[in-house]
Each structure stands twice: as structure tokens, then as C-alpha cells.
């Protein structure tokens, strides 16, 4: 396999070239002054190379070296970086961040002087929180401070306890070089001989030999581990949402690491040789990824929260990250109804919490006593909704081929068919479902619009037909079929798991409006007593687990619906794609239904890790960063993309190129397309639609056949006949353009 | 409030005493040689002070200084540590770890020389992942390397983006001191004058003034934030498992941070002044805490995983932490049936997964077609069981005053009353429930034992009466009442949330044995075809969310039951108390029920953050450490405690002192006691038992009245009339002894 044991972070190349001429060396970047690279490049009046250029040059050089090698050759490439591990790179970032996509095995050169124990361990920790494996720590023997002794003991203890033994360095100390008569002059006569002899000796020393052997051992262990990982996973792991008869070691993708929008994963190159190759994480890791994999700020934040708290019980206590995240969410959601934040662990639990909240509120207002166990109380929702896999959340969805497999599933509710937004053959249109065509509502089967934005100009569109239809259906369900409802539960705008179905926002607004405007449908209550923030008709829950917090380019999809829900559930992107966390944010009017002198009337739902500080901290840091990105007026990927979509504030835009998206919608294999924020969804024509379809798999095969000029591959997780691509919220637009070209190439 | 802005990590005290005599200084620890403290103490042939002694000396000195102050005085105390932030302490640990319990505001002194950018940022990161807030970074102005310029820009950018602005330092650079003629001699005549003038000037410089002002600002902000936190939380947070009418700002405890078994929280001292005081986390933060709050190794592990991966999708991919954790768990659970690990986010979701697994297996073997929606399929369990708060897990528990409040709750199953282990008046005994007394089984109401261990010697006890009883009940339920069962679901040994009820292990074994030995009760199947690892009768699920992974002193409670479950659910302690993660580990025989050519037959359950690398990594690291502790033959808290309980291998023991536990059981207010592993549960006599009781609250009031000589308080989360104390798995035994004394004092 192509992973080579390449050591970074060694020092003083020029010196090596002079005194150890046998070593084959080359200098990729050089400046005149021996100062930090960011200063050196300035002083030389040069334009600094970009981080991408530096990495590409390194990879190119390594490939050249690799090609020259005979199959049986054993050679080593050491990449020396400049100065300390966090010394600035030529363009001012930190070097350890810059080199991170390569994640090469690392040799840390330690400091044997006074204070060197501290700086060496700190450097190691800085590398660790960036995901590096530090195989080796080299330093000089020195008898006064004896740093090597301490560090040997320290790291050998750490290694013994660590689950990642190869990421904790083996410490090797070597004799220091001879004193030179004047370090600035290198007095040629005597010093040259002394120094070359020193390098000759050292390179043959048992310490250096054992260093090489250990590096080789780590390298081979790493390769071996990557090679067998899929096999072992196939035997040991029970995969989520999978039919295991379709899984084999061949289909399992072993991930070494990840950075930005990319996995670093084991793939096969054109000669069927296994290599580590970047693959674009097209599912944004099940829609969670926000600020890039391996984000160093979020990693430091995770460490900070774990180091400051770990987890602390959250019943009757409060800690800064949980409180501030709650405040941040309420201000961000910008909905005057919302005031209270309840924490849980994932979207599914958060939906169950929301339902418990809503049903209790409905129960106390309308006298549906919860003690009655009226299991027939249901939700009002949309068909093809998905709210999670725990039984309560499943029960809030209509029966499907999937959930009816589950013995305890028992769907309770009414689910509307809905008008869907589609980009077909370059035109944005609404497709009205058959139910709405029959009712004398004068709706056409397809209604075309000039732009996607036009669909979102709700004020200029006629909401009445929708309201009329919805009211008549609800009336029938309640009055004729004697159904009880306890909540409206909607995924605003985009029904993700159901197949990336984009709903007409006007229809969802109409549904909420009808429920709020005709409360008498649901029970008897003097509505005039309610204040403006109180829930009316039924509590309205927005499941923004997928659509919320900027995923679609907006803080909250609710704004685009011009509707304020009573309860909002957020998860996934909430933590920027690092750890699970969910919030169910509710109004005081719902909260008050639980107040009573009786303990048992409280919302008796809780998870052990409720509001865990690591999750809350990462979420707060991530939301700050997302907010910053959304407001950044410099040439960010946001502003560039908005401009390309011709979008002013509060208008629809996407990181995906408008013209590419339109072009893709023109191909005959394509049924329709939708793009918004970081999401691009392509629905393929296929006889068996939905989950059962294999259309996405065919695309996948095409892509893996492509080899993509080896720069990167695509990791696709299709939804039946829907292929979708979702980037982080700070993507490299150049990569997205390349992906659009691959997609276009496939259809051509 | 008593938090003082004290700055750590400044340098060179001796120098300051000489040249800036106006500063009031004192040296708490001093050694002859200017080398790392761990070496200096050796060279001086001294016994190093313990970390506790060092901290106590600092606190004492600060208290003295504080007492001398007039109310209006404004003074500063700076604590200078030795060398770099990770320089060794006298006894060999890292200084930043040693000082961590105090978590004082920190001034980092940066390095203005070549390479200083890297060492300074790394030192900052090492402090951050230990939970420190670095308020200020001081360094000398220097014109060649210009580190101050870079660091100012770097940290001001970090601060702008950070959600914790005060934990990212403001950078202040000051003029360097004058060159001295010989730094080793300090030539008195000229140098003394120069140097004292320098300090005079510097101390009056605008930079140093602004540094003080900024420190003061950060301090006041911190105090303010702690003071208002409870008020704000009362308005913004919806607490888990709580009746909010009983919550007020006064009852909410604001946590500044946590370390080991302690919260650092806002409490009132004897003069009703708010101070930061350690409080023992008696609930082990809802039973999650394993290796101490703010554990630096787990924090570094969290950072490593976040930096290496973030989250990566886990459908059809594999990464090292998930695979290795799965392998580790299977080997640790040491149950030949178990082979497959399914990941989810918390105990409740993991139980739902287990139930879906079991019901499908039962359905395919006995022909209970899941398509039938036979919602009456139920579980066999014990009364007062608790499995989580999502609807599916709730449905697996019998109706109670709590779950019947939830509209969609619909309990499905049969739950046995059970014989309970109790330490009453110094004697370990079993209390047999009435149901088992009536059946001609010859069981006494109370059965006494010589020791707790005797109860666990299952082979020497008579299992027949239990089996006879269980069989007759099941037969009646199935044959007369026509009930269908799909799984056995048990919390082995200790029913936690139900009130820390300890179950006779023989009864649970008997239940499993009856189900496996009489499969014909549940359906028709040719059992002779089954291999030895296959499930028999019904799949047996152990909910080890609370009891598993060493909480009770053993890797798995299953071993003590001498019974191998088909499915085990682990969570809580799994990640050592940092982030949520759950595993449902199952046998191949269950797994195979889901294999089919049809996608829809798979286990279609999945959470976005399935097997998130941060959780898996922390879990793996934590399990390694727990295993290490359990096998450590040195004088660890484990071995000491086992010895005190007179326990050899595989015998019952606890961190809680055997004699104290027995003594507590003697008090007339105490109904019974149970202790095992890190758990001590005291059931109080109370007319209204269960959750409705306020007995624990009375104890709480007593404790908060005690003031506990100010060393630490107790944070109690009672379970009605049960008060329990749960330590981490590496507790400071001295603290536990103090707690036992408080308990005894309360009852006396």
C-alpha cells in the first residue's frame, strides 16, 4: 500500500546537506533569513505559496521518489518542517494545521535544555489534538537536566496506558554533536571533520537503527491495520440502517482519518493497488458535518470542555456551556415564542421530548387526560416524514415498508400529501399531488416559476386553496373519523430521509395557519385568554434536525415559512459534526403545562449525559463560527455563492453552482433536482423509486471507475433513486465545481 | 465572592525578590539547584511534598493574605510555578495537572526568541485541554523574530472566534530588561541600579497597567457570570426529570468546573458569602463518572479523535476507534455468545435496538410475523425496572405513576416481583416477596447470610423453588392469558433508577434458566438444531447500562449471575463519564435473523452520530484504564478496598468501607443498605417510599448545614427515600472515609 513512513518535523536541512552529504536531500521552499517562514517570505518580498501548493509540491516530490524505487528498495523520506510544530507557515497559518491533510507519521525532535520537558510534551499534545500519530521522539542526551530520562519514563507510561500506542512516541536519545568552535562560522578545518564523523557515527548507532526499525514497525502495523480493518469490521460490527447480506469486506470502506470535506480512506488505484486516497464525504457524514472534519478549533474546544468538566450531572445544576448554548439558540432561532431549552442526545430523542411536551400541553388544555392512555392521540404531519428510529419518533410517521417491520411500531396520526418543489429541465416548478387536484381548488398539476426565490415569495402567492383543502381534510378526520390530535409535527422545507423532498413552504404555512386559526377543531377552550406567544389550536413542532442551523443557508427554515413554531428540535449540524447533542426548544406556554406541586407532573424525561459540556461547548463554538461565516463580508464561500445565485438577503442560494444545477436537471436520466444551502439532491428516473432503488449504486460504480485523476474520490450514500451531495458549511468551492463536472460527465 | 484573580505560571521569583523588593513575596517550596523540581528535590535528598500538600499550602497562604485584607483593599496574588506549564512537579507529575483543582486564572509568559511562537501556542493549548482559562499572555518585545506581533494577531483572531473569549489570552508585550554584564553574577554596582529602575518603570508602564485592568475585568466577569448563572438557568433551561415548580435560582447549583470526584461549585460559606467550594459528586454525575472529572488523558483523547476524524459516517465504513472498541467490548464481556456490536447514543436508544433485535429473532423463529403488528408482544422483566425514557424503552417497563403520565406509553410485558438483597442491622439477608411465599415453595420471608459473598455462591444454593415459581407464572401468563413474549430484559443485580434495589442473582439466573430450558412455552421450534451459542426459548437481554463495565467492581454483572445473555447493552460508564455513547452487543444467532436479500429486512435503525470517533476513542481509552486499575497489583484503591472486604478474586467488594457500611445499617432511621463496587445505597425508613419521598432532601439539608469544615460539600441526587453515593472508579479513599463519617454523624 502506498502509505510511506515519512517523518516530519526534523530540523536544520542546510546543515545536513553540508555534513551528511550521503543523504539525498532537496529543499522545497527556501528563504534568506533564519526566522519564522511567515516573516522570511515577507522579508524576501515574495508571494507566499498557498497551503495547497505546498502540500501538492510535497506529494509530487514523494511520488517522484516513489517511482524511482525498485519494488524491493527500502528507503525513507523525511520531510523537515520549519521550526516548532506550531511555527507559522509561509502564509501565516500554523504548520501543523497545514500539513494535517497528509497526516504523515511524525518524528518529534525534543528539547534537551532547561524547560525542554514542558515544551516537548506541549508540542506532542498540540500534534495529538490535530490527529497526528507521533511515532518517535528524538532528543540529545544531556546530563544536567536529564530531559531524556524524564521523557522516556513519561511517554513509556503514557504509551502503556494509551489505546493508541503508536501515537505516543518511543523516546530515543542520541549523543549531541561535537561543540563547534564558533557556531556561526563552522570553522572548516577541524569542525567539518568532527561533524561528518559525528553523522557517520550517529547514523550507524544502535539508537538510530532502533529508531528506523521502530518507524518501520509502526508503518507496517498501520498498513496492516488498514488492510484488515474491513475484514474485521465485517465480522464484528452490526451496521446501522443496513442489510448485512449486502455488506462484505469489499464494500466496507476503511477510514484512516478525515479533514475538511474529505475522508482519507483506503481505495484502489488504477493498478488495483490499495492506496490512501481522499474521498469527498458527499453525505456530510449523515448530514452532521459543519465546519470540516478534523477541525482544530473544535478539537481544542472538545479538549477544553473535557478538561474543565468531563460530564457533569444536569439535573438542578448549571454550567456555562449549557447555559450559553441555550441563550445562543434562543437568540439565533429568533422566534418570540421560544424560551426554554431541553437537552437530549440525538434527533430521535429530541422528537420524543417534543411530543411529550406537546401532548401534555394539549392534554391539559383540552382535557385529554394523559391518564386515559388514549393511545389514539396522533400527530398531524406530512407523508414521507422521518423523525428518527426510536419507537416514539417512528410512531409519529406513517406506516411504510420499513417501519412496519418493527413489532412495536404503531403509527398514530394523519399525514398529508404535499406540493413539491422541483427543478425539472431547467425550470423551477411545483408539482401538486392528486388529492389537491380533485377538490375544485383550481390548482394545476405543475406550476412553473421564474426562479426558486419566486416560490418563497409567499405574500404574493394565493394560500387559500391550500387552506381550504387542509381544513376540509382535518374536519373530516376529526369530526367524521373521530380522531384526536396532539401536535403538528413538520420537517420544514426539506424532507431529508424520505428522499430529499422539497415541500412548498406555502403549504406548510397553510397547515400551521389552519390549525392555529381553527382551534375549535381540536377541543374547547377560551382562546381569547391566550397571549400572543401561546400555542393555538395545537402545539406546532418543527423538526429542524436536518434543515436547521444554516444547513439550507438560513439560521432556521422557519423564517422562510413565515411561521413561528412552538417547539423546535435541533441536532446534527448543531455540534458542527463532532459529537451527538440535541436541543428541544419550547415556548413558556408549553412549559407551563408541566408546572404543578406534584413531582410526577414534571417532564420526567432525562438522559445521563444531558447537556454534556463537551457537546454544548463544541455546539456553541460551532454556532459562533457559522454565524461568523454567514455574516462575513469578505470573499467567503458564502458571499461568492450568494452572488452567483444573484441572491440578496433572505433569498435562496446554494454552494452548488446555479448553472451546473440547472444543467444537471436537463439530462434525460434525471427526474428533478433540488439545491439549497449546502445540499444538492438529484432524483433519478427509476422504475422502482424510493429506498428499494439501486439507481444511486450505479452512479457510485461509475464514480469509482473514474479514478478522478487520483485527486479525490466521492463517497456517496444514496437514498434509493436520489443521489445527494452535501458539503460542510465552509467548503472549498473548487472541489464542488469538480464534483459538478463529474456528475455532468456521468449523465453525458 | 472568594475567587481571586491569581495568576499562575510567571517566572523567576528569586530575581523579583532582589530587584523589585516592594513586591510582597514568599517562597512556598525551594530547592538548591535550578533544574526541574522533580530533579531538584532528588538532588537535595528531600522527600517531595505530595500534590495535595502543595495545593493545601497555596490555599492556606492565600487565605492568610485574604484575611489580612481590608474590605476595600485591592491586592493581587501571583503564584509563580516552576519552569514551563508542563514542567514536572516535585513528585514527578506535570505541574499543570497538579494545579488543576484550583483552576486559577492564568497568565502565560511567552517566549520571544526563535521558535517561541510555536512553544507559546503549544503551552496555551496544553493549558486549554486541562480546562484552564488563559487570561493573559505576557512576553518581551523583540525586533528580529517579532513573536509578539504574530501572537497578538493570532490570539486576537482566536479570541474573536472563540466562544470563551476570556480563555484566549490578551497579548501584552513589554520592554525586555536591560542586558546585565554577566547574567550569572549580577554585577551589583551598575546592574542593580539598572534592574531596579527597569522594574520601577515597567510596573508603571501602560502595558502592565492594562494587564492588571484586563485581569480585573476577566475576574469580575467570571464572578458576575457565576453569580447570575442560576438565575439565568432558571429562566432558560428546561431540566430533565424535574418538576420545575420545585426549582428556583436558590436550588440551582452553578458549576464552575469539576475535577476528580468533585464539582467546583458556587456555595455559601458560614457567613452566607458565596464562595467556590468543592462538592463531592455523589451521583457520579448520573452514574456516568468513571475516571474523574476533567481527566487530562480523556481530554487529550477527545482532542485526538476530534482532530483526526471529527465524526465520520458509520454506514458501510469503519474507523479504528469503533472497530477496536467493539473488539475490546467483546473480549471484555467474555461471553461466547456475543459477537456483534451495534452503536447508538444512549442507554435508552440501545435498549430499543436490543428489543428490535430480539423481537425480530423471536418473530422469525416462532413465526410471529412482525407484519402482523402484534403490539401485544411483550417482554419478561422485573418490577421497578427502568430502561430509559424513549417510548420503546418505557414500554418495556410496567406501568407506574411516572410513565402513565405519558400519552404514548403502553407497557407490554410481565414483570416479576423479586427477592431482594439487603444489609439490615449489620446482617446480609434476602427478603422474599409475598408472591413467592404462598406457593408451597418453603421460602422464608427473610433469609440471613454470613456475608454478601455467600449470597453469590449460587452453586451451593437451591435454585429449584425459584424455577418452580417462575415456570408456573409464565405458564399461566402464556397458556391461560394468551400472552406473547419476545424477550427477557433484565438489569442484572442492581435495579438502579427503580430505587437501587439489589436482586437475588439466583432469582435472575432461575428466570433465564426457565426461559431457556422450556422453549416450548414460547413457540414451536426444533431446538436440537441449535448450536451452543444460539438463543434458546427467548433472547435474553441484559441492560448493563448502569451495572456494567466495573461499576459494581466487575467487568460484567453477568459473570456473577453465571448466565450468558444473548444481547448486552452498555452505556454510562462506557466513556468514562465524558460523552454519550451506547453499545448493543449481540450474538450471531440474533444477527442472522436479519439477513435476507431484502433491504427492508435489515435492522433499519441508525443515528447520525453512530459510533462517533470521539466517543469510541474515549471509551476505548477509558476501558483500557479501568482494566489496568482492576489488574493493578500495586497499592491501588481497588486492591486496598478488596483487601478490606476480605475478598479474593470474583468476590464482592466495594470502595465503601465494610465496617462503615455495616454501622450505617444499624441506625434506626435506616431500612437497609447495599454496597458494591463504587455504589453505596442507603434506604431510609419513610412513610411515603419511592420517588415521592422527601427523606433524601432532609439529609441534603443536614449536609449543607454542616459546612463540612469547608474542605468539601456533598452534592446529592436522591431517589426518593434512597440516598446513594457513587464514586469514580479511581477514588481518593480518604474522601470516601470522610463521607462515611458525615453519614454516620447524620444518623447519630
TrEMBL record, chains A, B:
Keywords: Aminotransferase, Pyridoxal phosphate, Transferase. GO terms for biological process: biotin biosynthetic process. GO terms for cellular component: mitochondrion. The keyword Transferase applies. It holds the Pfam family Aminotran_3. It is found in: Mitochondrion. InterPro entries: Aminotrans_3 (IPR005814), Aminotrans_3_PPA_site (IPR049704), P-loop_NTPase (IPR027417), PyrdxlP-dep_Trfase (IPR015424), PyrdxlP-dep_Trfase_major (IPR015421), PyrdxlP-dep_Trfase_small (IPR015422). GO terms for molecular function: adenosylmethionine-8-amino-7-oxononanoate transaminase activity; dethiobiotin synthase activity; pyridoxal phosphate binding. This is Dethiobiotin synthase.
